[in-house]
Amino acid sequence: MSTETLSYRSCVIFSPTFAEANQLNSALAGGATLVATAFALSTFDRWHRRGQLHELAWSIAMTLFAIGSGALWWAESTGWSIFVFRIFFLAGAVLNVAWLALGTIYLLANKKFADRLRRTLVALSAFSIGVIAVAPTKRNITAGEFPAAREIFGALPRIMAAVGSGLPALVIIFGAVWSIWRVVSSQTPNMKSAAHRTVISPARLAVGNLLVATGTLVLSASGTLAGRLSKDRAFAITLLVGLCILFAGFLVASNSTQKRKELPTNY
């Protein structure tokens, strides 16, 4: 039997499996996109009604998550390109977690400090967009592969992704753990007592913050899963599961506190 015949038969045997894998990856990425979009719309509606800046920061972060997971959805459905990878890398690796962490800072820290960080983050976001848009690539993307940033980009974009995801993730986890500890100690969950939030359900707030920390850890676990599953499958799974846990955590935590001026009076 000729080599060409064996090659053809291998393609016939493995092509359905490959197609099914792509369909599953596409479905997972599509689910993550829908969850992130619902999350963004929910937090935007809350910000529009209540005007709290942490919810605006979360809305921006979830929009970025939706864009990043949408790029993954598109790539799994139609194939990767450099343009799609730039969008995926920028929204899903460089910017999204930083804006999510800004929401945590608005919740827990002094507003003036958070405002300064917001202005800095806006400038850094604009800089990141410019860098990723024009960053030279080392090679083209091979059909059927899940591109790795270290093989596509130079040092600067990868450093930006590491700093933009790693440090903000620590801020989110620290903020969640801090809030749980403060609630358990029967104190306000804010780092400054001047912050006007009153806990109406301490147990629910603790559960919400635990879910936030867990969701952040899940979203950071793609590197571990990539060693056991295909890289695109790992990203799709961690995006979907992590976003679902985050969404649940924010909904639970957000319904556990009120601004003091919103509390009803008894006189």
Write the layout of secondary structure elements.
Elements (H helix, E strand, L loop, with lengths): L2 H48 L2 H26 L3 H27 L2 H24 L14 H4 L2 H30 L12 E3 L2 H18 L2 H5 L4 H24 L2 E3 L8
Antiparallel strand pairs: 1-2
Can you offer a commentary on this structure?
The protein has 267 residues and is mainly alpha-helical. The protein has one domain: Rhopdopsin 7-helix transmembrane proteins, CATH 1.20.1070. It has 9 helices and 2 strands, in the order ααααααβαααβ. The N terminus and C terminus are likely disordered.
- What pattern of helices and strands is seen along the backbone? HHHHHHEHHHE
CATH level 1 class label: Mainly Alpha
CATH architect. name = Up-down Bundle
| Cα end-to-end separation | 93 Å
How many strand elements?
2
What number of domains?
1
Structural class: mainly alpha
Counted by DSSP, the helix tally is 9
Rounded average pLDDT = 79
Strand percentage: under 5%
Strand order of the largest sheet: 1-2
Helix content: over 70%
State the CATH topology.
Rhopdopsin 7-helix transmembrane proteins
Instruction: Compute the CA-based radius of gyration.
Output: 21 Å
Low-confidence stretches: 1-18, 260-267
Shape: globular
Largest sheet data:
2 strands, antiparallel
